[in-house]
Design a protein that fits this description.
242 residues; alpha+beta; seven-stranded mixed β-sheet; 4 helices; 23% strand; disordered N terminus; PEBP-like_sf; Phosphatidylethanolamine-binding protein
């Protein structure tokens, strides 16, 4: 069975999507989530607060901005309004996974729990950061370079009711990386997280950097990912991780 993280969905920027300028971000916050159908198709409600997200490459994220993976390689700075003596859960989740044989539609790129305030480094890192990437693959055509193709990555912060006890991932570079294929709604229910107190989202599209992830995942999992792709995941460095 082929597991396709990138999926074969076609979620590009919808026609008539809102483009944010300096004066319309306040009024359009709810609308951008709903007009892109991120709410209610992917999330039940718009996060009440905003997460300020800035990557070391220099890009800042406004809802529905589109980037290539090369700009998203390092963990971003994420800030949100906190309440005194509160702990938070932070997730970065691909909500556009599509695998015809599975009901799972999410891949967890990052998960940290028990964050005191917004001090992410002081929380419990459950899933290490995997930079966002996306690809379109079909068994008939292989990789498809579609300029209108992208995946939405949601950055969500939840205020916890109490401390969360959960497993810590030892090393994502192994077949256990597919443990990250989980539905966001299941995690929210399991840890009684409720609705996000803050959030943001971006789109990531296919680029040459994506091929490097396909090579690395092939090496980490021990088999060509998502399938044998000549010139992409068949070189020696794609065969085994060292």
């Amino acid at each position: 069975m082929t597991i396709v993280i990138g999926g074969v969905s076609r979620f590009g920027r919808p026609h008539g999507a809102i483009l944010f300028g300096p004066n319309n971000l306040e009024g359009d916050w709810n609308q951008i989530w709903t007009q892109t159908r991120t709410v209610p198709e992917k999330l039940p409600a718009v996060p009440s607060g905003r997460a300020n997200v800035r990557f070391p490459s220099g890009v800042s994220v406004r809802p529905n901005d589109t980037f290539t993976s090369g700009l998203l390689l390092q963990f971003p700075e994420i800030e949100w309004e906190t309440e005194p003596n509160s702990m938070y859960t932070l997730m970065i989740v691909d909500v556009d996974i599509f695998r015809p044989e599975s009901p799972v539609t999410n891949f967890i790129h990052y998960l940290s729990t028990n964050i005191p305030g917004s001090n992410i480094m002081a929380g419990d890192e459950n899933f290490q950061f995997i930079p966002p990437f996306a690809f379109l693959y079909s068994p008939e055509s292989g990789l498809v370079d579609d300029p209108n193709f992208s995946h939405r990555m949601v950055i969500l912060i939840y205020k916890q009711r109490s401390r969360i006890e959960t497993e810590i991932e030892q090393d994502y570079c192994s077949p256990t990386v597919f443990n990250r294929l989980q539905n966001l709604s299941d995690l929210v229910s399991k840890y009684r997280l409720g609705v996000p107190t803050a959030g943001n989202f971006l789109r990531v599209k296919y680029s040459s950097t994506t091929n490097k992830f396909l090579c690395k995942f092939s090496a980490c999992t021990g088999s060509p990912f998502p399938a044998p792709l000549p010139g992409i995941n068949d070189s020696p460095e794609c065969q085994s991780y060292k």
